[in-house]
Specification:
Blueprint (H helix, E strand, L loop, with lengths): L13 E9 L4 H13 L4 E6 L2 E4 L9 E10 L3 H14 L14 E7 L4 E2 L4 E2 L8 H10 L6 H6 L5 E5 L11
Antiparallel strand pairs: 1-4, 1-5, 2-4, 3-4, 3-8, 6-7
């Protein structure tokens, strides 16, 4: 995989939460491979991963998704991290033919060290996070203090179910 020039690493690692999803191909393998690739980024370590969830697509068609959230620490700044995550998606065959198209891999920065970021390329916290059970439920497993109880209640009717506990990704966590 060819990563973009990631620039200089930051001085202090930031705590980051990244949403992972896939609904085309070998989804669980794609999520594990993505976690391994994230863990290989400069100054980056995957520290924990939520249980694996299955969910129906939201505002889209196609097969059900596998979803999880990863907690990581990274010395990368937000923009270089976004570029690296997009390179990992591309290496997994991600195509963007239209908005909310089915995908082999989707990686979203949900939260980055408490920063509010609003650029044309990146908005953090993720702007639609509070509308999506497939993000809130796995994030609540890792960081319940980051999930508003009212938002979690508001998405309770969305079709999502826990498939596996956090051990599904043990081989790639903490490297």
């Amino acid at each position: 995989m060819n990563l973009p020039d990631l620039g200089e690493e930051g001085e202090r690692p930031a705590l980051v939460y990244v949403g992972l999803g896939a609904n085309l191909g070998e989804c669980e393998a794609a999520l594990r491979n993505a976690l391994a690739a994230i863990g290989q980024l400069p100054g980056t370590r995957v520290t924990r991963v939520s249980p694996l969830y299955g969910s129906a697509p939201v505002d889209a068609g196609g097969p059900d998704y596998l979803n999880a959230v990863a907690e990581l620490t990274t010395a990368l700044a937000p923009q270089p991290l976004l570029q690296a995550l997009q390179s990992i998606e591309q290496a997994a065959g991600r195509q963007r033919p239209y908005r909310n198209a089915p995908r082999t891999l989707d990686l979203d920065i949900l939260w980055f060290g408490g920063q509010a970021i609003d650029t044309p390329e990146l908005t953090v916290p993720h702007p639609r996070m509070a509308e999506r059970a497939f993000v809130l439920r796995p994030l609540a497993d890792l960081a319940p203090e980051r999930v508003d109880a009212a938002a979690l209640q508001a998405v309770a009717s969305q079709d999502i179910h826990r498939l596996e506990g956090p051990g599904w990704a043990d081989a790639v966590v903490g490297g």
